[in-house]
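Researcher: Last one for today. Full complex below.
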Amino acid sequence: MRANLSLLENISIGMQYRRNLSNEVAIKLTSCLLEKMMMIRSANKRVEKLTHSEIFVGKFFRAATTNVENIIIDRPALLLPDVRYSDFLIFMANTLAAEPRCEVLKKLPKCTVIDYEWNKSIWDNLEIQNA
Amino acid sequence: MRNSESSFVENLGKNTLEHIHYVNEVLLLAFTSIKYAFSFNYYKNNAVRAVVAKQVFFTAWQILPQFTVASGLLSYILISIVIATTISYGLSEYAIELALRILVFELLPIMAALFVALRSGAAINTEIALMTVNNEFRGLEQTGTDPEKLELIPRVIGGVISVLSISAISTFVALFISYISTYGFEFWAISEFSNIITKVFTPISVLTLWIKLIIFGFMVTIIPIITGKLSIKSMSYVPVSVLQGMVRLFFTIMSVEVVSLAIYYI
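Model: Here's the assembly. Have a good evening.
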């Protein structure tokens, strides 16, 4: 994440460049994503004021808005050290999949989580809706 | 003895190759920036325009009041010294010409370049070094975004625009102060002043000044950018990278100034 850009700008700038969107349209599309994740209040905060979850969400949306097929989340404990990361990731997946979906993320990418063998039990018996 | 000699030669070779690589990267970015700066299609992208505008805002617009006051003060002091000195030698008719040549062609351009270097050069160096450490460039490439076109070239263009614009403003301030210092708030000497300006600002000298300012504009952004890009991927190395960048920038600015003096006066 870029240190001198806000959370909103970090997510929208790549999308704005690739699709040649105006500032207003890029901000509107990105705001929808943050509203869905209930992080809109942090939209104008810079990286040093964001929580680990907010930084993770920013990086995730920055990748997801490029229409990639698969996003790999490598060792989520390193990225989300201050939350129960399995619950957070499932919450995020269910929230983004729930209707109405944001225009910029109509088709959700496949997400692969890579975690240590000894954390297998964390991922057992988790229910993913709208997969 | 042989070991120390061979390691000296090895280090010399390694350092030479690093310097050649560095200069190569600087020139490459300079030529790429020139190519895109004159491409109308490049500016059609909203994100590119936003980065250029931000760079100009933070580099030139935000420091404009302080820089104008500082350059005005410097201009006033220098012009007063020159007028007093030329009067004491009986050469008062050359006072304005001498003051303007020193200020507009030498001092104010260097002052503008150093202001921009301190204001934005260090920040750009830090930002690019952090992006290198955090693998942001690779991340942008993997998401289909050309990091050079989005992040680097707009900053170079913004830097050149900033140096040119604040130099132009400080030049007008210097002209105003030189007129007021010599003739006061009277308008009877405008034609005489215009003749002096015509004598000082010849086409060749204005062209030389513009070329020098454009080179300064390139250097105050490209050198920090390349120093940051070639930084070792370690957070603890970032301050070292910034220090290296600023030292290289300072020596480059001084070298350009010395070369321009040599070309113009020798």
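The interface with chain B takes residues 1-4, 13-14, 16-18, 20-23, 26, 62-63, 66, 68 of chain A (CB under 8 Å). The helical segments of chain A are 7-19, 23-36, 52-64, 76-79, 85-97, 120-123.
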